[in-house]
Amino acid sequence: MDPVTSGLDPTLPLETFGNTTVATGGDSRLYNLNVFYNPGDIAWMITSTALVLLMIPGVGFFYSGLARRKSALSLLWLSVMATAVVSFQWFFWGYSLAFSHKAGKYIGALDNFGLMNVLGAPSVGSPRIPDLMFCVYQGMFAAITVALAVGAVAERGRMLPCIIYMFIWTTIIYDPIACWTWNPSGWVFQMGGLDFAGGTPVHIASGCAALAYSYMLGKRSGHGTQELNYRPHNVTHIVIGTVFLWVGWFGFNAGSALSANLRAVMAAVCTNLAACVGGITWCLVDYRLERKWSTVGFCSGVIAGLVCITPGSGYVAAWAAVIFGVCGGVACNYATKLKYFLRCDDALDIFAVHGVGGFIGNILTAFFATDYIAHLDGYTVIEGGWLNHHWVQIGYQLADSFTGGAYSFLGTCLILGALDFIGKFVPAFRLRATEEEEAAGIDDVEIGEFAYDYVELTREVKIPDDDDIIDEGMSTHSLEGHGAGMAMTSHHEKNQDSIDSANQLAEWAHRA
């Protein structure tokens, strides 16, 4: 009996199948297409896909915890909505634009439009897995990239234009960068650039997009004043988000080996090590200044380490991952100050952690990539980085990083500029909420639901003169321990019972 038909041989070499020239890999009614792929590889890739999906709510929880509570739910909502919008875009034409077998140097063709003919043929990513498996795995990468970037709308961006932006940005920005980085036809791939799991397509692209989005939206009301001098509203959310991301990153990096092999194991080891060292490093940098062991600092350092190791996780040895973690933790920590020099309200420091972290990771990959680590999968051959005396690799990495970052930043500005221009005539496309909507909170105005059973009250602080007249209907409370000259007035459209806080410049919320 023919083993291709019977399925008796589970690991037939792919080249023994004469019908592999068929776009779908062959007729599944006549042939058992499973025999050309290792079930262990397929199982590992399905698991990795689920792990990357888990990262997306992790991003939402992380961002939600960093924001003020009156806009906490909107950031969670945008993260999961990114999954839905981008998954449809990926089905519609995204996968074809990024990973078409007929792709050019910059973007793919539409021969896989609507996932047409995406089935059992070997993928462009690896002959070890079929097109269909590679498609769903890479779709999660596209979704989390958008989820990372849209955190820039925190506390002042409107929902509808952001949803439209998700679809357009994935099509115009992410798909071409993914194509030229990971598609064998892409110019970075052919040049010899090394990016194992997304230093440029995921992190630099999302970080620069977030920076552009922050510029286009403008600063939040009260930026630079006491009104925005606040701590993250829910550190528990930040920890939960970090745990989701940390666990999911194993599928993100180790899964990028695209099969179950030693290279995937090494990527997992490097990923965890860089995360641990990044968290410790950030904590130490913060402790030097404040003498506090910050939970938020540790979580931020973990993310910085994970971002930094992403492009090199499948190319470097475990000892190098320690250097990635230290450099990522230090560089991203200090990069959080860049927004003041750039005069940009990057509320969640997305550019500092992902843009800068991805860039540092790309550069370090040029130094520490080695040929023997890449060949742990049994078939990948690279010239390596500086450890292999391949000095020109630094030029390849710089070209990849700056091109991807500039393309993402400028492209995002053009997309958002076009949407905002349309918004002058069609208010639904207006990017930014009004001052009144921002004061009420995006959760209330855009969603009508809250992360908690109460919302934060807007507050006004003023120094009254002797002749000040307190408007009727406004509550005034003297602040204990701060003198008789300062008073605080609070209000909300649904004003009910409120709780006085004697030691903080706030009045927290009411029953919704």
From TrEMBL:
<feature type="transmembrane region" description="Helical">
    <location>
        <begin position="189"/>
        <end position="213"/>
    </location>
</feature>
<dbReference type="GO" id="GO:0005886">
    <property type="term" value="C:plasma membrane"/>
</dbReference>
<dbReference type="InterPro" id="IPR029020">
    <property type="entry name" value="Ammonium/urea_transptr"/>
</dbReference>
<keyword id="KW-1133">Transmembrane helix</keyword>
<keyword id="KW-0924">Ammonia transport</keyword>
<feature type="transmembrane region" description="Helical">
    <location>
        <begin position="292"/>
        <end position="312"/>
    </location>
</feature>
<keyword id="KW-0472">Membrane</keyword>
<dbReference type="InterPro" id="IPR001905">
    <property type="entry name" value="Ammonium_transpt"/>
</dbReference>
<feature type="transmembrane region" description="Helical">
    <location>
        <begin position="163"/>
        <end position="183"/>
    </location>
</feature>
<feature type="transmembrane region" description="Helical">
    <location>
        <begin position="405"/>
        <end position="422"/>
    </location>
</feature>
<keyword id="KW-0812">Transmembrane</keyword>
<dbReference type="Pfam" id="PF00909">
    <property type="entry name" value="Ammonium_transp"/>
</dbReference>
<feature type="domain" description="Ammonium transporter AmtB-like">
    <location>
        <begin position="43"/>
        <end position="452"/>
    </location>
</feature>
<feature type="transmembrane region" description="Helical">
    <location>
        <begin position="318"/>
        <end position="336"/>
    </location>
</feature>
<dbReference type="InterPro" id="IPR024041">
    <property type="entry name" value="NH4_transpt_AmtB-like_dom"/>
</dbReference>
<comment type="similarity">
    <text>Belongs to the ammonia transporter channel (TC 1.A.11.2) family.</text>
</comment>
<feature type="transmembrane region" description="Helical">
    <location>
        <begin position="348"/>
        <end position="369"/>
    </location>
</feature>
<feature type="transmembrane region" description="Helical">
    <location>
        <begin position="136"/>
        <end position="154"/>
    </location>
</feature>
<feature type="transmembrane region" description="Helical">
    <location>
        <begin position="75"/>
        <end position="93"/>
    </location>
</feature>
<keyword id="KW-0813">Transport</keyword>
<feature type="transmembrane region" description="Helical">
    <location>
        <begin position="264"/>
        <end position="285"/>
    </location>
</feature>
<dbReference type="GO" id="GO:0008519">
    <property type="term" value="F:ammonium channel activity"/>
</dbReference>
<protein>
    <recommendedName>
        <fullName>Ammonium transporter</fullName>
    </recommendedName>
</protein>
<feature type="transmembrane region" description="Helical">
    <location>
        <begin position="42"/>
        <end position="63"/>
    </location>
</feature>
<feature type="transmembrane region" description="Helical">
    <location>
        <begin position="234"/>
        <end position="252"/>
    </location>
</feature>
<dbReference type="InterPro" id="IPR018047">
    <property type="entry name" value="Ammonium_transpt_CS"/>
</dbReference>
